[in-house]
Amino acid sequence: PQKKTSDNIINFGKEKTQKPKIFEDEEKEEPLVLTKEEPLVLTQELPSSKKAINKKTLSPAVRKIVEENKIDIQSIKGTGKSGQILKGDLISLMGSAPQPFERKLKYGQEERIKMSRLRQTIAKRLKEAQENAAMLTTFNEVDMTNIIEMRKNNQEDFQKRFGIKLGFMSFFVKACVLGLKAFPAINAEIEGQEIIYKNYYNISFAVGTEKGLVVPVLRSADEISFAEIEKNIKTISEKARDGKLTIDDLQGGTFTISNGGVYGSMLSTPILNLPQSGVLGMH
């Protein structure tokens, strides 16, 4: 029987028969699809027929193995009491044959894809550098404590004044310019039997894009301010990622900065960008 209600009384009897709003569209929801571009976002509840396994119910030994190896416990059928996952269940996974890679199933054993003209050009120039230059790599550590602290203390004021964030690249560019002025041979190139010393400082910087690595040029870096460096780098980087760079944007560099640390590596040996004589690889 329906209970009488007034404006300030909740009818609990009626509420029990209603499905909570949050689950009303559950059946209409699209399935979860993972792509390389999008992070994993859970948009579906687990099926009601399968009870989710809580890590808190695992023994300390099992929990440690699960966390260290990032094991998806929801896909494991436990053999313990009430379906509890035991250490033996995890060890038995080592004897399970993994499924073939999805790409192999879709495209077969091998794929043959023609390189774009940009990739062909990059490959050709890098190979030429390896064959024609006597390259040497040295490794040095730099204490960034003071720069990190100064950037932190002045970030808010810098953004208000110039409308752009104060990054680290402007510091690296200015440091390179000072180094090149102190050692002019690094800002020079060899042409035939002559060495051409350049008294201008066009700093190339590597930008990774979907189509490959490009190295646009920041011109007259010695004659522009920190704010102008940050703005120019942002503008040029956006052009690179949008595929709008011109030939002029890529020519005329005298020295290159390559930040391989963004890919998680500890050290690297970047290849020269001919006809330049030096490159700074940062990690």
From TrEMBL:
Print the keywords alphabetically.
Acyltransferase, Lipoyl, Transferase, Tricarboxylic acid cycle
GO MF annotation terms: dihydrolipoyllysine-residue succinyltransferase activity
Which stretches of sequence are listed as region Disordered? 1-29
Where does this protein have compositionally biased stretches of type Basic and acidic residues? Answer: 13-23
Q: Which GO terms describe its cellular component?
A: cytosol
Among Pfam families, the record links this protein to: 2-oxoacid_dh, E3_binding
Pathway(s): Amino-acid degradation; L-lysine degradation via saccharopine pathway; glutaryl-CoA from L-lysine: step 6/6
Q: Which residues form the Peripheral subunit-binding (PSBD) domain?
A: 57-94
One GO process term, biological-process aspect: tricarboxylic acid cycle
What EC number is given for this enzyme? Answer: 2.3.1.61
Cofactor(s) this protein requires:
(R)-lipoate
Query: Which family does this protein fall into?
Result: Belongs to the 2-oxoacid dehydrogenase family.
Name of the protein this chain belongs to: dihydrolipoyllysine-residue succinyltransferase
Q: Which species does the entry assign this protein to?
A: marine metagenome
